[in-house]
Write the structure tokens for this entry.
Amino acid sequence: MKAFHFLALLALAFSLASAYDPSPLQDFCVAIPEPKNAVFVNGKFCKNPNLTVANDFSFSGLNIPANTQNQVGSNVTLLNVDRIPGLNTLGISLARIDYAPNGGLNPPHTHPRATEILVVVEGTLYVGFVTSNPNRFISKVLYPGDVFVFPIGLIHFQFNIAKTHAVAFAGLSSQNPGVITISNAIFGPNPPINPDVLAKAFQLDKNVVENLQKLFKNNA
């Protein structure tokens, strides 16, 4: 009986382990818009592989600097499955991040579906992430050629501490990694979170919370 329980637990563990993102059974699945009334579960519908072309797998213009004249002084150009349909089912995407001089910030955020690996190509970045409870802060100053990894789901950021423009490229382990910008998610969702909740959670005066909600309302 004990042997049976062990085998049953082993089978359950194997089934759970093998049920996460199985490898595709075809070379590729170029994404196409969902048919009318289709149910979106994960990924996209596939284009007939005999009709795929090179443009399904390519993108041009990642060498062009993005506009960083905004409130945080950064701009993320994300190439996910919506920009390169051929990424569908392949579990990877790419981003270029431009940072304004003197404090350009990619603000604290998370990617719920991806680990990120970042390489700096221009400038000097102060980067870091926070672990799950109990929270530890892990940070480093990066220079051109340096690489840093942000584990999946953890809050992280990049901050330009130099007087010059900075550029980094990031690989992400999902065709659609998603992003949750912490400040926008807390103070700017629609409808807003009850300010009494946030006042107690952050130990702030309710008026401060309401002012922050007004500030971030248009940024979410």
